[in-house]
Amino acid sequence: MADTVETRPVLVAEGITASIDDQPLVVPTDITVSAGECVALTGPNGSGKTTLLRLLAGRLVPSGGTVLLDDEPVDERSTHVRSALSVLIGVPALYPDLTLGDHVQLVHATWGSVGETDLERFGVGALRDRFVHELSSGQQQLFSLALVFARPSRVLVLDEPEQRLDADRKDLFAVAVEEALADGRSVVMACHDHDLVARLARRQVSL
Amino acid sequence: MTAPDRLLREIRTRPRAADRATDLYIVVLSVLVFVLPLARWGTQQVAPATQWSPPWWTAAIAAMLVAIGAAAAGRTRGPVAVSAPYVEWVVAGSAPLARRLRPSWWRSLLVTMAAVLFVTVVAVVSRSTWPDPVGAVTVSAVALGSGVLLSVVWLSGQARRWRNAAVLVLLSAGTGLAWTGAWRSLDGDPAWWSLLVVPVAVGTAVVVPRALSAIRPSRLRTQAIRWSRIEVFATTADLASAAAVLRAPTRLGRHWRPAFAAPPFVRRDLIGLVRAPGRTATGLGAAAAAGSLIPIAQNAVTPLIALISVAAAYVGVCFLSDGLRFHAFDRERPSAFGVGPGAAALQHLVVPTALLTLVMGSAAVLGGSPHVAIALALLVVACRALSVFKGHMPLELLTPVMTPVGEMSSAGRLIWLADAVLVALLVGGTTVSQASGWDAVAILVVAAGLVAVWARSRWRQ
């Protein structure tokens, strides 16, 4: 993994913070994510990991500081930003009347890309013809990860990707991240699993 | 049509279990049973108003107020209304935002234009005289132009481009003037200048691409999820929860530590009102409007004014009785409070009763009917209690009821859902419009007492 890491920063956050009125949600934080690098955000519940990810993804306007993607401010309305960032924060919105296979097909139609093994990579290939409400919570998490990894992107922003996964499925996720890093994609993830952090993250930001 | 939209359409054309004929049947039946009678009744009520020729500034102010309302509505639900999964997986794609969102915008634009045209046609045909053909065309063109302008203001509100919205609101004043001229042309007095609304409205569409590009996808997703939740609550007849979804989260007064002598739940309600000034002002405003309409309603030839007054009073009490609603909603859960649930419910009734009687009574003083207003306030508060104490909808109401004219279980659900409002409107509206003085007071107070007994029996259940 270390061999593939480039030093060129892709996503740079300086002194970003968020607050509601006088109530701070995140303390001012600096983060730099380079191409092919995985950065893990760690900290106790309520420390602001998810809020920080939302700031990095441009889904929340920071109260202070800046977030730059390729030296441009991150704004979710920008085509460049939407093309670069693949984000999984919370439960993604899914169509109740589409099967898993339909969703994957839709994602590829959106991007004009092709992918045959997106579901198999996360062990849910056999569920291709199921609807979303026919999945267990763990299967739904694997499916969400499959969609987020299926679309082209340069930076993956993931909030607790390990939640509801058993040890084998966590391994599938780790392999997918390692492949993404090897392709030069970057990963920023909030994670409570110390083993995953130790295996994947080149750097760790503690909140 | 782009590739994802084409794919979604292909997927949706697959055979499915739902019977489309049933859906069509429900729509047709709803139109025949509810929409047409209401439209006919409404047309008869507004007929006198259509003969009224207001001064130009009245129409200008009304048009501006409608435009301001449209811009404000854009914050909650804009003309670009796509589903949350569509935002997640299609809007998030690499195509420019304006291109992705354009189809949804076109749909809303056409629906808005059709709605404005429909209302205009209803108003025109309710006139006592047949309209001049040239005038009818002029009014239709102005209606369509107003629909376009209204949609663009609505979109500007959704994109939070407030400078654009302000300019468009000012332009809307011009449409008000055009309406005045166009309306007079129905009597054969042509006002060609009114047609200027059309090119002006079409010209405002130049801001649409920029506005579409300025909409944040995360806000679209939030709006989609919010309205999906409202739909679920409304389907299960939980209108209070549906309305609560639209409420802004409380942010004011977090450091406020009030200390004043009052029973604990009365104090809670007062604190809640102060921390939600918008809701409180709306509730008090509605109560004041209701009170000021009562003297007018008692002398009006149509019961419409009385019904509007009662409806405004009911809206007012809904906004001022949050504590009562929260308490009724949570009554089945274990409580940590040292006051019994019945005593707590009575305490929660104090603030809305006091405020409604005070505001409605004061507002009705000028017309000389404060006693009627206070009695109506008591009835409305009792009806509100009846509504919040009803609990969850009984499952038996979901059982199909087959009749020779079709399946009628929805009528039972509708009556269960709206019983308190219907009682307030029927008893309150009839009494205010048909009785006067202390006769009206006596009827309203007795009715309030009976409804209170009914509400108490619901609470005990």
Automatic annotation (TrEMBL), chain A:
PROSITE patterns: ABC_TRANSPORTER_1 (PS00211), ABC_TRANSPORTER_2 (PS50893). Residues 11-207 form the ABC transporter domain. Keywords: ATP-binding, Nucleotide-binding. One of its GO terms (molecular function) is ATP hydrolysis activity. InterPro entries: AAA+_ATPase, ABC_transporter-like_ATP-bd, ABC_transporter-like_CS, P-loop_NTPase. It holds the Pfam family ABC_tran. The keyword Transmembrane does not apply. The keyword Transcription regulation does not apply. This is ABC transporter ATP-binding protein.
Automatic annotation (TrEMBL), chain B:
The chain crosses the membrane at residues 21-42, 54-73, 109-128, 134-155, 167-186, 192-212, 304-324, 410-429, 435-455. Keywords: Membrane, Transmembrane, Transmembrane helix. It comes from the Bacteria. The keyword Transmembrane helix applies. This is Uncharacterized protein. It comes from Aeromicrobium piscarium.
